[in-house]
Automatic annotation (TrEMBL):
Class of enzymatic activity (EC top level): hydrolase
Sequence intervals crossing the membrane: none
Protein name: U8 snoRNA-decapping enzyme
Organism of provenance: Falco tinnunculus (Common kestrel)
GO terms, molecular function: 5'-(N(7)-methylguanosine 5'-triphospho)-[mRNA] hydrolase activity; IDP phosphatase activity; phosphodiesterase decapping endonuclease activity; snoRNA binding
UniProt key word Transport: no
Biased composition (Basic and acidic residues): 133-143
EC number: 3.6.1.64
Any one GO biological process: nucleotide metabolic process
Domain Nudix hydrolase residues, every copy: 20-158
Stretch list, region Disordered: 133-158
Keyword Nucleus: yes
Names of the cofactor(s): Co(2+)
Subcellular location: Nucleus, Nucleolus; Nucleus, Nucleoplasm
Length: 158
């Protein structure tokens, strides 16, 4: 995580942790299924996005937010609803990042983007509660069309 903030410089010469860069954080939330479930044995929470693609919950960290994790937590509350309030994500859940320098050249983007990816294992009951709470999220129907989980599970479990 720390190394991602110093990977590249933008056109103004600023490192990724300095002005001229934005950060986006997304998280893979998963839960083990009951013993005896067919492979892969996990449920994974994803979203049906406004553009018709599936993705992981998260989004842009606002300038001035306390930390990457604080920005991610705000995005999770917006996209997943009140059940996401219990989620705690820290630097230990961060598993990778990539810096995308600004396109420049008149493309309209003079700001680089650092994408961060987190992984968090949850109890199945918590994952189910988050999935069911999706329709109560502020962005349901706007940025997020539907929150879904995948994996082999018994009908009615997820």
């Amino acid at each position: 995580r720390r190394s991602a903030l110093g990977l590249h410089r933008n056109a103004a010469g600023n490192r990724a942790g300095e002005p001229g860069w934005r950060h986006a954080c997304h998280v893979l939330l998963y839960a083990p299924l009951p013993a005896g479930s067919p492979p892969p044995g996990y449920a994974v929470l994803m979203q049906l996005r406004f553009d018709g693609r599936f993705g992981f919950p998260g989004g842009l960290v606002e300038p001035g937010e306390e930390s990457l994790e604080a920005g991610l937590h705000r995005e999770l509350l917006e996209e997943l609803g009140p059940a996401a309030a219990e989620l705690r994500l820290g630097p230990g859940h961060h598993c990778g990042a990539r810096a995308w320098p600004a396109a420049g050249g008149g493309s309209g983007s003079d700001v680089g983007l650092v994408t961060h990816f987190y992984i968090r294992r949850l109890p199945l009951e918590q994952l189910v509660a988050i999935e069911r709470g999706g329709p109560r999220s502020p962005e349901h129907g706007l940025e997020v069309g539907r929150v879904v989980s995948g994996g082999q599970q018994a009908p009615g479990e997820l």
